[in-house]
Amino acid sequence: xxxxxxxxxxxxxxxxxxxxxxxxxxxxxxxxxxxxxxxxxxxxxxxxxxxxxxxxxxxxxxxxxxxxxxxxxxxxxxx
Length: 79
Prior knowledge:
With about 80 residues, the protein is α+β, with helices and mostly antiparallel strands. About 25% of the residues lie in helices and about 15% in strands. Strands 1-2-3 form a 3-stranded antiparallel beta sheet, with no helix packed on it. The N and C termini lie far apart (about 45 Å).
């Protein structure tokens, strides 16, 4: 996998975030990957790679990213 976009984003992030990341799980040499979006158990990098998200937000998103049923219920509660 090529992470050219993530390299540029990491260089920018290093200027404003200590260590350039807010999640040590994503960091690996030479730089971390950056996520564009998530759906279910998958995340999609800025480069368009699809990865399985084994961490799931350290358990905070154990029902998956972008769960439509949860989003609908939250919207109903807000309304």
